């Protein structure tokens, strides 16, 4: 079987002729996932998952390994770009109400959960000061589960505190989950192939479709090259732009940082966690901030925002709320930040209750192939 035969179902897939560059995020995410897996495999050959050697091995990779600095910076900075693209991808899906394609939406949500898990585990591996205490804070949330919480936390740690068994387990999971994501990505593409793509108008696109190749191949290639150039610029000019200073310090269990702060792409969820004083309530709100995405397809499909000005205003408010929560997550827990955060947390959840039902009901035509 030739390569042309294998690629024909993909290159000849009919696509709506009016989809814009905002539909390019899916192909970019696939490219970034392959980049992460490739660089991750190379880094794993030199990384030592031991609490007394992990930090030194990172330094050795950066300073002694041939092109190690480049591989490490590509891996760490591409993770941030990965989240940026997936947030844009989700935003586009919500804005155009493409979540009525339930199967692609569910597989995409599953990919988001796996990505968050993988990123959190990878953030712990350098064993810097912020890595250690981030692991301590987040894993301790499991202790809020009634009856089994403490036992589950100790099982995850591999003991009564975060140590070598914890680092080994986190490294193993961080290495394996991306391969599960690859399989799930293919499932996501398959479901999209079966249901078809939506379009900006939200109307029946079966009347005007064109083959994926060469039209969208050229369009996707342009954004792919632009993204690669952006990664190159960041890694060679501003390699630590997404990093925190405290994570360049060796982890010290006896010294707590004055302000524990996760990576920027987790700050919105971290704000929601801190907005509720009760530990169990904060944990439930944190989980709900992600699982609430599953409620969107439960509503009856509505007309796309192209014809509905009110949802555009509400969606813009949601984007501002998300940005504000991310900023508040980097602020200390003190006045006035601790009084503002609950307000934006409430607005975040209210969006998912009001947005899907704001416009008059109209069932979009499924864009079947």
From TrEMBL:
<dbReference type="GO" id="GO:0046872">
    <property type="term" value="F:metal ion binding"/>
</dbReference>
<keyword id="KW-1133">Transmembrane helix</keyword>
<dbReference type="GO" id="GO:0016491">
    <property type="term" value="F:oxidoreductase activity"/>
</dbReference>
<dbReference type="Pfam" id="PF00032">
    <property type="entry name" value="Cytochrom_B_C"/>
</dbReference>
<dbReference type="InterPro" id="IPR036150">
    <property type="entry name" value="Cyt_b/b6_C_sf"/>
</dbReference>
<feature type="domain" description="Cytochrome b/b6 N-terminal region profile">
    <location>
        <begin position="1"/>
        <end position="201"/>
    </location>
</feature>
<feature type="transmembrane region" description="Helical">
    <location>
        <begin position="335"/>
        <end position="355"/>
    </location>
</feature>
<dbReference type="InterPro" id="IPR027387">
    <property type="entry name" value="Cytb/b6-like_sf"/>
</dbReference>
<keyword id="KW-0812">Transmembrane</keyword>
<dbReference type="GO" id="GO:0006122">
    <property type="term" value="P:mitochondrial electron transport, ubiquinol to cytochrome c"/>
</dbReference>
<feature type="transmembrane region" description="Helical">
    <location>
        <begin position="280"/>
        <end position="299"/>
    </location>
</feature>
<keyword id="KW-0830">Ubiquinone</keyword>
<feature type="transmembrane region" description="Helical">
    <location>
        <begin position="170"/>
        <end position="190"/>
    </location>
</feature>
<dbReference type="InterPro" id="IPR005797">
    <property type="entry name" value="Cyt_b/b6_N"/>
</dbReference>
<feature type="transmembrane region" description="Helical">
    <location>
        <begin position="21"/>
        <end position="49"/>
    </location>
</feature>
<dbReference type="InterPro" id="IPR016174">
    <property type="entry name" value="Di-haem_cyt_TM"/>
</dbReference>
<comment type="subunit">
    <text>The main subunits of complex b-c1 are: cytochrome b, cytochrome c1 and the Rieske protein.</text>
</comment>
<protein>
    <recommendedName>
        <fullName>Cytochrome b</fullName>
    </recommendedName>
</protein>
<feature type="transmembrane region" description="Helical">
    <location>
        <begin position="100"/>
        <end position="124"/>
    </location>
</feature>
<comment type="function">
    <text>Component of the ubiquinol-cytochrome c reductase complex (complex III or cytochrome b-c1 complex) that is part of the mitochondrial respiratory chain. The b-c1 complex mediates electron transfer from ubiquinol to cytochrome c. Contributes to the generation of a proton gradient across the mitochondrial membrane that is then used for ATP synthesis.</text>
</comment>
<dbReference type="InterPro" id="IPR048259">
    <property type="entry name" value="Cytochrome_b_N_euk/bac"/>
</dbReference>
<dbReference type="Pfam" id="PF00033">
    <property type="entry name" value="Cytochrome_B"/>
</dbReference>
<keyword id="KW-0472">Membrane</keyword>
<keyword id="KW-0679">Respiratory chain</keyword>
<feature type="transmembrane region" description="Helical">
    <location>
        <begin position="221"/>
        <end position="241"/>
    </location>
</feature>
<keyword id="KW-0479">Metal-binding</keyword>
<feature type="domain" description="Cytochrome b/b6 C-terminal region profile">
    <location>
        <begin position="202"/>
        <end position="369"/>
    </location>
</feature>
<keyword id="KW-0999">Mitochondrion inner membrane</keyword>
<dbReference type="InterPro" id="IPR005798">
    <property type="entry name" value="Cyt_b/b6_C"/>
</dbReference>
<keyword id="KW-0349">Heme</keyword>
<comment type="similarity">
    <text>Belongs to the cytochrome b family.</text>
</comment>
<dbReference type="GO" id="GO:0005743">
    <property type="term" value="C:mitochondrial inner membrane"/>
</dbReference>
<keyword id="KW-0408">Iron</keyword>
<feature type="transmembrane region" description="Helical">
    <location>
        <begin position="311"/>
        <end position="328"/>
    </location>
</feature>
<keyword id="KW-0496">Mitochondrion</keyword>
<keyword id="KW-0560">Oxidoreductase</keyword>
<feature type="transmembrane region" description="Helical">
    <location>
        <begin position="130"/>
        <end position="149"/>
    </location>
</feature>
<feature type="transmembrane region" description="Helical">
    <location>
        <begin position="69"/>
        <end position="88"/>
    </location>
</feature>
<keyword id="KW-0249">Electron transport</keyword>
<keyword id="KW-0813">Transport</keyword>
<dbReference type="GO" id="GO:0008121">
    <property type="term" value="F:quinol-cytochrome-c reductase activity"/>
</dbReference>
<dbReference type="InterPro" id="IPR048260">
    <property type="entry name" value="Cytochrome_b_C_euk/bac"/>
</dbReference>
